Amino acid sequence: MPTDDLPTSAGGHCCWRPVWQDGDRCVWHTECAGKSVEALTARGNPGRRLDGAILTDVDGLSEVPLSGTTLANATLSGADLRGVRLRDVDLRGATLGRVDLRDSDLSGGTVQLRYADLSAARLRHADLSNVDLRFATLRNADLVRASLVGAKASGTTLTAATVISTRLAGATLRNADLSDALLRRARLANAQLRGATLSGADCYEADLSDADLQKAVLEDARLRGTDLTGSDLTDATLENADARGVDLSGATLTRTVLTRANLFDADLSGTTVYGAVFVDAKINDRTEFGFDRGSATSLSDATLTDLDRLGWRYRIIERLSRQNALPEQARRAYRRRKAVRRRRHRKKWAVAKWTGATLSGGVMRYGEGPWRVLGVSAAVVLAGAILYPLSPGESLYVSLVSFLDPLAAARELPAWARYVAAVQSLAGVLLIALLVFVFGRRSTY
User: Fold this and answer.
1) Nearest CA among 344, 340, 338 for reference residue 368
2) Residues 131, 106: Cα–Cα separation, whole Å
3) What is the DSSP letter of 297?
4) How far apart are CA 282 and CA 266, in angstroms?
5) What angle in degrees, to the nearest 10, is found between the helix axes of 351-364 and 327-347?
6) 145-175 in b/e burial notation, b at 16+ Cβ within 10 A?
7) Which terminus of the chain, N or C, has fewer Cβ atoms within 10 Å?
8) Residue 290 neighbours by CB distance under 10 Å
C-alpha cells in the first residue's frame, strides 16, 4: 500500500502472507465477504500490519487476536466484534459500517479510530473511553449506554445517532455534527462542544452542565429538562429551540440567539445575557429569573462592566415579561434596572443624574409606586400642619387646603406662613402631577 494511504510515519507496506485458495491475495486482503474465523486464524499470528484488510461480514471476528495490529483503511463492515477487548489497535480511516461492537472494550486511549467510518455501527454498552474518534463517521450509530468518557471526537459526524444514556463526560466534540441525534439522558458534563451542530437533536433530560457550547448550533433542538447549569453558550444559536424546563442557572448566554425559543418553566437564575437576542422568545410565570441571585457581585462592589451587564439582564427580563403578558414581573425588572442605573451614575460621579434617579426612586419608585407618591404627599401636609401657628385641627385643615389651593388659605396666615403655603402648594402641584403620571404609566402595561 502507498505511504499516503497509511498513518503518518507508518511507511509503505507490502503484504508478505501466502495467497489464499486460488486467488492472488492472502486471506486478509482477498475481496470477499463472510470469511470464516478458522480461515483467518489457520496460519497463527497474522502479524502487526493488517492495513487495508477486508473483513466484511465476518462472524465471530472477536475471536481473532487483533490487539496490537494496524488496520488502517481496513474494511470491517458488518463484522461481529461483540464483547471484544481491543488494545493498541490503529483503525484510522477504516470502514466499520454496521459493525457490531456491543459490550466491547476499546478504552485506554490506545485505539485509533480517526477518519473511521462507523455508520450504523452497533455500539451498545461499548467502552470507548479516551478513544481517538476525530473526524470519524458514526451516522445512525447505536451508542445506547456506551461510554465515551474523555474521548477525542472533534469533527466527528454523529448525525441521527442514538446516544441515549451515553456517558460523554469530558469528551471533546468540537465542531462535531450531532444533527437530529437522540441524546436523551446523555451525560455530557464538562464536554467540549464548541462549534458543534445539534440542530434538531433531542436532548431530553441530558446533562450538559459546565459544557463548552460556544458557537454551537442548537436550532430546533429539543432541550426539555436539559441541565445546562454553568455551561458557556457564548455566540450559540438556539433559534426555535424547545427549552421547556431547561436549567440554565449560572450559564453564560453572551450574544446567544434565542429567537422564538420556548422557555416555559426554565431556570435562568444568575445567567449572563449581555448581548443575547430573545426576539419572540416565550416565557411563563414559572420561568425563573432569580432576581435576588442575579449577580454574584453586590451593587456596592460592582464595577461599571458588571453594572452594564446586570442592567442589560434586567432590560431583557423586562422586555420578555411585557411580550408575554407578565406585567408584575416586568415592573419588578424595570425597578431593578433603574436601581442599577442609579448605582452606575454614582460610580461615574454623575451627580445631577444620580440625584434625579435617587429622587425618582424615593418619591415615586421610578414611576411604579402610587402609594409612595401618596405617602410623600401626606408627609408634606403633616409638615405644614406642624409649621402653621394654629390649633392642631385648624392647622391640619389649612395645610390640606394650602396643598390643594394656596389662595384659599393664604389670607388667613401671617406673612411668613404664606411662603410656607406657597412652597406647599408647589409641592402639591408636582406631587399630583406625579401621581397622574404614575397611574398613567401603570395602565400601559
Assistant:
1) 338
2) 7
3) S
4) 10
5) 150
6) ebbbbbbbbbbbbbbbbbbbebbbbbbbbbb
7) C
8) 14
Instruction: Work out the percent of the chain whose per-residue pLDDT is above 70.
Output: 90
Residue identified by cell 490503529 is 90
Architecture of domain 17-152: 3 Solenoid (2.160)
Which residues, including other chains, have CB under 8 Å from residue 375's CB and lie 6 or more apart?
A: none
Specify which residues 157 forms β-bridges with. 137, 177
Tell me if residue 321 falls in helix, strand or coil.
Answer: helix
Confidence at residue 409, expressed as pLDDT on a 0 to 100 scale? 54
Q: 198 phi and psi, to 5 degrees?
A: -125, 30
Identify the band that residue 178 occupies on the pLDDT scale cut at 50, 70 and 90.
Answer: very high
Average pLDDT over residues 72-86: 83
**Residue with the three cell numbers 403633616:** 382
Position 196 scores a pLDDT of 97
Which residue do the cell numbers 439522558 mark? 185
Q: What are phi and psi of 63, to 5 degrees?
A: -85, -10
Domain with CATH 2.160.20.80 in the chain: 17-152
User: What's the pLDDT band for 71 if we cut at 50, 70, 90?
Assistant: confident
Environment class of 442 (CB within 10 Å of its CB; exposed 0-12, middle 13-18, buried 19+): middle
